[in-house]
Amino acid sequence: MNRISIFIVSLVCSAPLFGETPEEKYCAKQAGSYAESQHFADLQRQSKAIAQKLCVPLVTLSESTRQSQAASVQSDLGQFADNVTKSVEGSALDQLPLTPQLEYFKATLESRGLTSKELPDLEIDDLKAWVRFEAIGSKPPSRVSFDGVDCGDVDCLSLLEDWELAIDPYNGPYSAGVAMLQGKKVELLSKQWDQYLSKGRAQNTTSIILTSFMEKEHFQQPHLVGPPSRQWFLLHPSAVYGDVDAAPDGENTKIGVAIEWIGVNYWNKKVPLGISLSSVYSDRDQVDDLGHGVTIHIANKYSIAIANHGGDVGYYLSLDVLKLFQDKDRQLEKFQSKMQGFK
Q1: CB-based burial label for 35 (10 Å; 0-12, 13-18, 19+)
Q2: How would you list the strands of the sheet with 121-125, edge to edge?
Q3: Could you tell me if 256 and 295 lie in one domain?
Q4: Which of 102, 180, 253, 316 pairs as cysteine with 240 (C-beta 3.0–4.6 A)?
């Protein structure tokens, strides 16, 4: 595993549901992996059906696709919650005060859905004899004790476990779909960061710090992010080769050193373009050694500097020396450390 994948965060990659694709087949296998419910077979079939509707949309990275199906899935979740309530009515579970739990289950499903990634599960503690629904990020009602409750021919624990077996399939493949979606995002973001470091201009430490600061709103998003659309530069050195026509013969063309005081580069445009305020130093007779001006960056590869040497104009081509010695892994580590400071 390369360091880019590690940087983005390595998530377990599972996948979704019924259909022709490997991902859909895997999800169908997940839904079918549960043992058959003995007392709530109809509810379990409904649970597996809703699992497919939840899981399949999650295999796509298209947010618009998931949003377009969210309303339909939300309706199905509401119907499923009603069926969970009906499964209690007329069964021995009706002996338990489950009404607050069932209301919580329905309300949570109605407030969440396809884009929430956290749906309620049924929890049973057989040692302490309690049961309740619970979802991460919400406050569930008090646990329901079944200690000493008479559930007829079947003990309450066995009946509750069978009920759980009927309900659980709706959320299992969904969780697998969430994991697969995150896995695909990790893969995509890894490629985007690799492009940033391979295609974009090389950055020194001060430039990485400035980029992290200027793009902090991008890095502060509450989810994994790819690289920013802009690169910023601060005190960025480069080698230059240029001409000052006013210099004496033989002194016109010289190699020099340039420093970009501050600049920005739109590295991922159709035609990448950037600009920097810069200074150039080159040793020439009868011309100021130090010149100040601007540098234009084109296609992340070519830089043309124009500098004023005390009234004499020089034109330079710049070689990004840092690119020759760039350590992508090290640059990624620097970005990671700066991004963590914004979380």
Answers
A1: exposed
A2: 121-125, 130-134, 144-145
A3: yes
A4: 316
Give the residue-averaged pLDDT of 54-66.
Answer: 63
pLDDT, tens digit, for every residue of 233-247? 999 999 899 888 877
Reported as a single tens digit per residue, the pLDDT across 157-198 is 999 999 999 998 888 766 666 666 667 778 888 888 989 988
Residues 69 and 154 in one domain: yes
Residue 200 tokens read as 């974009």
Distance (Å, whole) CA 106 – CA 100: 10
Tokens of 215: 């793009």
Same domain as 170, residue 210: no
Same domain? 176 vs 91: yes
**Mean pLDDT of the residues in the chain:** 81
Q: Across 174-252, where does the E strand assignment appear?
A: 231-244
Question: In angstroms, rounded to a whole number, what is the distance separating the alpha carbons of residues 255 and 283?
Answer: 8
Token pair of 261, please? 């005081």
CA distance 76 to 54: 9
For 321, the domain range is: 202-340
Say which amino acid occupies 245: D
